[in-house]
Amino acid sequence: MPTQSILVIEDEDKLRRVIGMHLGAAGYQVKATATAEEGIKHAGDADLILTDLKLPGMDGLALLEKLGAQNSHAPVIVMSAFGTVENAVEAMKKGAVDFLPKPFSLDHLSVVVEKALEVRKLRDENRELRAQLGEKYQFENIIGRSPAMQEIFATVARVAGTRATVLLAGESGVGKDMIARAIHQHSPRKDRPFVKINCASLPENLMESELFGYEKGAFTGANTSKAGKFEAADTGTVFLDEIGEVPPPVQVKLLRVLQDREFERLGSNRVMHTDVRVVAATNVDLRTALEQGTFREDLYYRLNVVPIDIPPLRERKEDIPYLVEHFAKKFNGEISEGAMERLISYHWPGNVRELENVVERSILLAHGPRVEADDIRIDMGARHRPAGAADNFLPEGMTLDEFEQSLIKEALKRANGNKSQAARLLGLTRNALRYRLAQMGLE
Fold it and tell me: What is the pairing mode between strands 271-273 and 194-198?
């Protein structure tokens, strides 16, 4: 690890030398100056800046302003013999990470310096992660060369800079999560939180408290107050995945957030305000849920301001070679022409997610240095009914209602009574399944 550099700005000669010797002995590379004007020339090379507050010419507060204008990444510790609360607060407001009142011990100095350098490390890591995320979700890094995907990218580019609500529709595995993150990364909110909420994974009785938070004593076990997802995402983006799974009582509260940007924690009457951009996603047709009465019409139209339909992979086969090459590179493998042809010919009911899994598995289990057609581990026919094939008729002696009821019972059996899982097996929302169960008298 390179030696960390510390810039010391202190007009008192003896103290400047003592600090420099102490930090130098601790292994740091130290540059010491008596004025801020001289020190700022070396600020760009420093990992940490230690400055007196009262200096001849430019003082410590003016130095902090100057460093802020230059977008300096070096954390600043302010020292002062005139250590008042007002000094400390003003220094912190202008960007200082710590305040060191004189006189101080050298041991105390070491602790404060180590803490500030740890802050620098965390800042750099966060900055690098944000840069990687921004790069990952650039359009050129989202694989989609088909006209349909290019049109989606164009729509995202047009709406990302606004606060318009976006509704992403498409089968599971088509990349709704990636498109949602691309919208966030191309928006003015890209440096703010992106909070994903999988509505299908939240139990109904916990969904409201997870989304909007709760106060201490709101229910049994609420021993402390807790902020919800909408508070955590303030000034950022909320991604509501599988929005069709939200139960009607919570739909009312979501509508209020979208309309008025306000909500209340569970167990509180205090109105809280939030500034969030909402992107929602669904893998079922919400218009069917409207007809069944399981999804509010007013909420649907609030969500459907900018609708984006992401086509399944079988409808954009020209994207498959690019995706395969991307995944092969990711998993350090090579795909033969025969293997590529086999991958292109498959209908991919699990879409991009399934394709990635198959490519990874085939590379791991390939018999040779590259993946051949026989190494592709998928069932090419069992899950696919060719276009134009005759539909199966109902079992003999069974009505449509009876057949539907038998399917629902079988799904519940396979899901061990879990309605959310059974609904996914049937391609329904949890609310749509409950609606059908109520109609059949099975609730």
Answer: unpaired
Calpha distance 79→54 (Å, rounded): 9
Dist. CA 202–CA 401, nearest whole Å? 31
Whether 99 is covered by a domain: the verdict is yes
CA distance 97 to 93: 9
Domain containing 85 equals 5-132
Its pTM stands at 0.61
- For residue 206, give the 3-state DSSP assignment: helix
Any domain includes 387: no
pLDDT in tens, 161-196: 999 999 999 999 998 999 999 999 889 998 899 999
Angle at 221 between CA 218 and CA 224, to 5 degrees: 65
Q: Report d(CA 398, CA 396) in Å as an integer.
A: 6
**75, 101, 132 — which closes off a domain?**
132
User: β-pairing, 5-9 with 29-33?
Assistant: parallel
Nearest to 198 by CA among 184, 214, 210, 190: 210
- Residue 288, phi then psi, degrees to nearest 5: -65, -40
Write the pLDDT tens digit of every residue in 80-138. 876 566 777 777 878 888 888 888 889 889 998 988 888 777 777 666 655 554 455 45
